[in-house]
């Protein structure tokens, strides 16, 4: 497997400008004793003419790319030699070392070198027979008369190809040079470090692939424009020219597997050379979960099949259809999808389904064995347990042991099932079908990308540890804009051991450095990606509505907009510092998601303010309406800007509709959120001065349904009390216009301790608004008292409103350390525990950036570990309260919507306050045995959180909350304790974290 030595060297090397993500650094742009190419001397590449055509093709990429990087075209020596005799052509240039390429068993260069050099003989023996392994390093005297060579030998075709692309990545060529227009980094000379190995493999996951899916409108319209020569038959031109771009990208990402586009495409038919080309490149072809036997369904069936898609009714035709598919695929490397899905094809009675499906699989195995003329168990096959098919498995259906069981996520990134103990030694093993893109309930997810790396990392980490590592395939929609997610997915699949949960910042920085080449900007770019991804992973754009983030409580909406605004300005700064050649890549990968993300968020939040302000008789209603209209226009401008890049290279790629969902399916046209307007010449009935306050939807003076329950003759407003432990140490009053009449105002406090940040101002026009901040001078309040102060706001037109606030001078006993209640709430980020205790070597771990807030915690992944309630690893949180409801408090745990992946052992946690008996809670109900997701599922995946509440005895005072692990896989990010009933106001993210003393 992985040589620890190579990782050690990577760690010792200085921060490289030369890198392949996650790999050691073997190349250098500073002089070493081994030059591969110098300022004056081009590189030399040796390859054996008998090697795989796909290796030759990659060698030509090496030649072309190195020419772009160094300005000098490498010379390829394409030698024909016997295994034992040298070829006189093998003449290294005097001051450089050759790059020697070869595949074990296919290249006489390898055989010859193994005979001349004992070092190489041993190294070759070490990789021989392995899957996609390779030697990649400087070898001294690789053959007689050659002092040294940079050897790239693979155990098989892809083992060599990955070595070539890894070399190029280090030399300054991003895998995304074409798909995201990442510029070649220019270096006139390239050297190799002695004594460092970039040897690789076997990879952590055997088949690493993508599914191009949901490919209309963006990808399909782009393909029609770019690959059609103007004539499009009945189906879009997903031909070998288009797929060559995909195959090459996959190989550069060290991936090997593809499910092709199938909405209105038939890979094996639309271009008869598609399958050949995939194999020539080195890509293993498959078809999706619902397309058995390597044939596009239903497209091909509709074209070539006859009769019903129903095994019992139409066996002969289906068998012939599938036989043709296997014959067509047989010359090439493929994985055959078994089974059959479809609504019209299965009997209603459930037992009948399983029996039928088992007969279908048996017939498919016979077909495979007949076509290959050998046991079906030697041909790669998979059975995908997607949606209801998992139900069949749960109720006992099995396939032969050699078939890979492909478990799935819930289409929202939560894996439904992991191999149980007795399933881990199947010869076929298991895999995971995962989603970045999805069409379906509760909403499509087709436009943006969250790059939710902490979640992918955790879920896929579970998959690897539980042995689901034969296939990882991810639904990437249109490929763009999932570039970063895909890059990480493949980097992780290639080697899960070097990317821990704490390495995601390192990953992003390496990524940013590789793509943008700037040591100084890379950390900022990495941080921008992390921040926009975090904001996007709180909710898909398709699910936004105008009141999702609270407009009045916890300053939630304005906090979110503040984060987006900071991102836009920081991204503008980076963009202004990047050379022109980097602009297209930067726009696609970083700037577009930021400006488009900010804009869609602003669109909805402003629409929310628009409605709220109208109800409050504020003239700023119209300003917000204008803003919504402008943002709606700007959304189109941003799309057009993307489409206009590089003379339209990516035209159509952002044409996915995303605004104005009415149900789960994409709208056929974007529509703007509803807005309203107020009359411009009319003044609000009570006069032009409008007063609104923090944490209330009401407005004063005059009547408003949100002022008090009866909605008229309500008392003047108050703002929530401040205590020394309030997370935000001030409250606000907003003064705004209720009509076109300008006015001036004054504000005064009736007590010395209540401070105002401004005491007068003017509202010169209808769009003006000002905030007065109220804070407390605690030294002027006696400890333990809770006086009320009153602020009076007067307009020069004679209007007057009073706002009251309590200063609640609470204290905690000296020596107390922990979270302190304020406003009836204790809110805790789970990573801020007081104590953590391991059990049997397993403890809770912090998952940085996981979830909607700061981070999350989860029991370290320890396969099959589970504990009785109260016996497992425990996190303790000390907290202090002043209230209770009849001696009780409620505790709401915000956890990730992870599914119950272990049959018979649902994911739970156990929770206790002080030394009371722990209560066990199961956040996610079980799936039905028919494979239906639990009914809460569509709500909790949409919000990316499950909130579960327990009640505990806790009189006011000091307490300890204990969170016990019971099952691996539980993830929680926030705990909210309510000590006064109803004190937690609506918000999307929950109350801000309490003060910890
Ligand atoms: C080397 O020669 C073989 C046989 O003539 C040819 O098929 C192959 O494309 C050549 N390779 C390169 C890299 O030029």
Please sum up the structure shown.
By secondary structure, the protein is α/β, with parallel strands linked by helices.
Q: What does the overall shape look like?
A: globular
Count of domain modules: 5
Q: List segments where confidence is low: pLDDT < 50 over at least 5 consecutive residues.
A: 1-16
Structural class computed from helices and strand pairing: alpha/beta
State the CATH superfamily name of the largest domain: Glycosyl hydrolase family 115
Q: Could you say what the CATH architecture of the largest domain is?
A: Alpha-Beta Barrel
CATH class of the largest domain: Alpha Beta
Mean pLDDT: 94
Number of helices: 21
Ligands present: 2-acetamido-2-deoxy-beta-D-glucopyranose
How would you characterize the largest beta sheet?
Answer: 8 strands, parallel
How widely separated are the two ends?
48 Å
Binned, the helix content reads 25-40%
% residues in beta strands = 15-25%
Work out the radius of gyration: 32 Å
Give the number of DSSP strands. Answer: 36
CATH topology of the largest domain: TIM Barrel
The largest sheet has its strands arranged as: 11-10-9-16-15-14-13-12
Plain-language structure description:
With 997 residues, the protein is of the alpha/beta class. It has 5 domains: 4-192, Chitobiase/beta-hexosaminidase domain 2-like (Chitobiase, domain 2, 2-Layer Sandwich); 207-499, Glycosyl hydrolase family 115 (TIM Barrel); 502-678, Methane Monooxygenase Hydroxylase, Chain G, domain 1 (Up-down Bundle), CATH 1.20.58; 689-806, Immunoglobulin-like (Sandwich), CATH 2.60.40; 819-978, Jelly Rolls (Sandwich), CATH 2.60.120. It has 21 helices and 36 strands. The strands form 8 sheets. It has an 8-stranded parallel sheet with strand order 11-10-9-16-15-14-13-12. Strands 25, 27, 30, 32, 33 and 35 form a 6-stranded mixed sheet that branches. Strand 23 (788-795) and strand 24 form a beta hairpin. Helix 2 (53-70) runs parallel beside helix 5, helix 3 packs across helix 4 (118-127) and helix 7 (240-252) packs parallel to helix 9 (274-281). It is globular, with a radius of gyration of 32 Å. The two termini are 48 Å apart. The model is unreliable at 1-16 (pLDDT under 50). The protein binds 2-acetamido-2-deoxy-beta-D-glucopyranose. 2-acetamido-2-deoxy-beta-D-glucopyranose (NAG) is lined by residues 47, 49, 56, 59-60, 76, 78.
